[in-house]
Structures are given as structure tokens and as C-alpha cells.
Amino acid sequence: MLRIVLAEDAVLLRAGLVELLTRGGHLVTAAVGDADALAAAVDADRPDIVVTDVRMPPGFRDEGLRAALDLRSRHADLPVLVLSQYVATPYATRLLGAAGAQRAGLGYLLKDRVGEVSEFLDALRRVAAGETVIDPDVVRVLLRQQSADRPIARLTPREREVLGLMAEGLNNQTVGARLNITEASVVKHCGNIFMKLDLDPVEGNRRVLAVLAHLADLHGEQHRRP
Asked: Which of 42, 54, 78, 181 would be 185's cystine partner, CB 3.0–4.6 Å?
């Protein structure tokens, strides 16, 4: 059982999430509707994980995301699962860019993913356990937005498939099963990916964050260009 603080401004969705999480065997210690209440709930009674919407009152822009980043800066071991209505890569890149040095679990999912109850609850469990879980649709957009003159263009189609699954937080065994290749082949592809992207072959959750931070940096640089 996980102790969860939930932040979602839409009353019906908040109630639905509380019901879903409770039926999943977890305890929602606080269900709030704005970023200030989220911060207060976490400070008052540290949960096992925070689940928060990106957009919250009063501005309905990125208050939930900013609250999540602030909480992670003050509580470095606090797992956070962020929910977003749309594929908003600027939000994802901000979250990932601030997460590289931390080992606490991190998740960024589209709200549509909540409808897949078993997948959502599995993502919640994995983030609470310290893993990184990024929505597949967000990963695909990040990969598509890399231009032809970027290092990612060096990757073969198979290496891009491996990278996409790795960026979702899947381990080598699961990646191999998804692509119907051996785990040894996945390891070889990973080595090639890290070499071509000029990344250190760090292990586990840090490996996923390294790849995602790399893609996020490239995405951000493209949008900073005049």
C-alpha cells in the first residue's frame, strides 16, 4: 500500500482518481485542488508518492509542474508522478532537466493513460520504487522532434526503437521481449546508442534520465533558436 498525496483541480476527476487508487489498494492521505494545498499536504505528512496535474489554479498554466519541481528540490527522495492533458514537451523537458542528479522516482504520463487502469497502477508502483516512467506518446514526440543534423540521426531504425522503449523506463529484458530480440542484442544496441549520443553508459534509472535529458536538451535548444 502506498500513501499518496493527489493534486487535481477538476473535482470529478479528482474523485475518480481517489476511487481508482483506493480500489488499487492504496491510501490517498490528501486530495487537493491547487498547488499551495499540495505543498502544504506534503510538508505536513510526507507521502510515499505525489501524483499531480500540470495545470492548476490560479493561472491554469504550469502551477502543478512548478510545485512538483519545488517539492523535489526540497525533498530529494520524494517520488513524483505528473499527469498532463496533452503531449506538452516543454513541460516534460523542464521536469526531466531538473531530475538528472536525483535518484527518486519520476513519472510523466498523459491523463488518457489513467483509463488503462492496470498500466496506470503499474506506473505508479514503478515510480514509487524509484524508476522513471515516461508516457510513450511523449517519448515518440521527443524522438520525432530531433532534426537531421543532431546526433540522434546517427541511430539505425532498430536503435531508435530500443531508445524509445528504454526512455519509457523498460529494462533490457522487457525491451528484448517487446522487439522479439535477445537481451544480449539489446545490450549491444544500448552500447551503440550511448556511443552515438556521446553519453556515458550509466546504469538503471540514471541511464533512462541521461537519455531523456539528452533529448530534452536538444529539444530545448531547437526552440531557443531565433
From this structure: 181
